[in-house]
Predict the structure of ATP-dependent RNA helicase.
Amino acid sequence: MSFENDMPQAGPSTGSGAVIHADRLNMMASTSGAGATTSALPTKKKNLSEKQKARNKKNLKKRKKIKQAQKAAAPKNKEWKPDPVLEALKKATAQTADQDSESDSDSEKEDTGLKGKELTKEEKDAKEAKEQRKQEKREKREKREERRERRRAEREKAAKGAVEPAVIGDDADVSDDDEEDGEAEAMDEDEKDERDENASASEAEGGTTQPVESSPPPLQAFPLPRAAPAPDAAVLARQGLPKGLEDAVFVDQSLRIPIDELKFQVSGNQESQGLSERIRKRLGEIDVEEFFAVQAAILPHLLPLRLVPLPYSNMSDYLISAPTGSGKTLAYAVPIVEILSQRVVTRLRALIVLPTRDLVVQVRETLEALAKGTGLNIGSVTGQHSFAQEQHQLIADMETPLLGGSSKLDILIATPGRLMDHLASTPNFTLQHLRFLVIDEADRLLNQSFQNWLAQVLAYTRPPDKPIERTFERQPYDHVAPAWTEAFGLIDMSAEWNDPVPVTCQKLLFSATLTRDPSKVAALALNDPKYFIVQSSLLPSEPTSIGEQFAFPSSLTEKMLILPAALKPLNLIHLIHHSDYHVNSALVFTKSVESALRLVKLLEFFEDAYVLGGGGGKRVQVRGYTGEMKSGERKKLLADFTDGKVNLIVCSDLIARGMDLPSVSQVVSYDVPLDMRKYVHRVGRTARAGREGTAWTMIEKQEALHFKGMMNAAGHLKSIRKVKVKEEDLAGYRESYDIAMRRLKEHFGRDA
Ligand SMILES: Nc1ncnc2c1ncn2[C@@H]1O[C@H](COP(=O)(O)OP(=O)(O)OP(=O)(O)O)[C@@H](O)[C@H]1O
């Protein structure tokens, strides 16, 4: 049952839904005896002009159409939600309109004033003025309607053939731009008026102007990656970071001490002592005549340490932060060789952990050079050789179970992964005799959570809390470290007057970028740590003692090129070939191995075309350096680079840490380093051991903000000079570059 059946029809159908609906309402109201409020409706409708009615009808049609279109566009899924971007845009448009209306309403507010009751006359005037404005607008609208009607009639006359009136209306709706514009304008004005009224009404109520659709907040800029601020001292203390880190000793980078003048005090001895004759000779053989700052600062603390510590002696751990190439390796290698060379029997007394195989090889070479003639056995485990080969190198007797182990080595240099494998699977491999545990490139190693290596290695340096259940007996020649005797049940220390035997292992941590992460430092279980920071005397020496340190070699020059990505290869070519820059003994860093290999090919093709095409000069030799290369190949490449047979090595960050190639005079970051540490370690491949060096960073325009922000945060932006290469300076390379690019496409196309 519907109203249409029950209710009498009110007059002839006009075909206008809105009017019929209003009439029905009226009839319903009168039958149900509704009061004056509802009966006012038809009266209002009757007052509407014919034009107005037609316009309303048209608006209604239009709204219906929009609704239908929206329905059609919406996905059939019930959970459909409006597109947030479209909604935001809609709101933004509404906001602009609101702003207009707000400014109107502001002026209105001034007019209507809310300026107190004494202004009632002014208010009246303002109202009248407003009414007048409205009246003018209405008149204008009517005139516009008339004009439109006239135009439509003319068009109809001109049109030939019979056309249905309804279709005319539809066509007019869709295609008559003029009319639509006019209508839209008129509607806008209506809406604006309405909004003006709303705004002034809400203001008059004393509230702030709240448009129906609140404007969306402006879009936030995408946040740039940035390092967390250095933790507060109180936070560090709560997290268990020992106080020693706050009382760091700052050492000026320029400090130098001739080898013969280095003196240190051995406890219980009145006279200060110098280095042994033998080690001085060895140092002379590797061209070390004076100690650099990090060595001069730390050696007087480490050299007095004894092979077997005296009871109750202070067993501090040491943390050393010093710039790249400042000589950290010798800072631990010299004392280890000096102290261990006093040993009588071989035990594993020094373990040096490094993040990569290449570094292990490099450090082993330094130690072997220093230990010549001492009888110390030095070995390494990196996974480069078979596990059995390594075991054979490590352990003298793997058959007889021995509580004190059976080491063939005095000093072991290892990567963490392989070290863990041997701790787990090599019989008689023990760390109980360790006197020094060195963690070089400490920040990188602390970031490697591989098998939780750090916690495990530290656990192997300490006797377990619970007694170990032995399944075999001690052999006559089996030597157990004193701190382990209780754990093995060899002595009973439970009596009240017995002090536990201390562990003799001291930890030495080295890095150019020592970690700021308190939890990582806490994981080291440091014992009374001493913290040394080597940096330029120009840098502040107080609050930076907490948090990450970025110190740079003072002989380093840094430059940056901000350029479009497409011009990077040409700019690199310019740096290589232009006599002002002469980048010809350089490491070039890319973001990945793939980009490194592509760049190598491009430069090779370019050199072919340029040199053959009469570009002049010697062909620049470029090679890639990747982790997939066999160690022999790598060694050969590095040797060729040192001999000048190779001019540029292109690589990813693989080589960036610790590698010591004295012949690197320039470093080019072809792809921008993503964080400050990477930057420090990359640029640190040049300007080593006090030599001059230049670091170039190529920054794509869209990366400039991030890069500069990163440098600024580290207080380093001012040290980098901006260089601009003019487009015309690159013109001479264009032809050869185009040839190289064509060949590159062919090359990779063929490979693909
Ligand atoms: N006192 C010295 N006199 C002359 N050369 C030195 C001295 N100390 C170190 N060197 C040389 O300086 C170079 C850099 O030393 P080393 O590799 O130990 O630096 P590093 O501080 O460990 O750098 P990185 O942080 O990059 O690993 C090496 O070639 C080394 O032989």
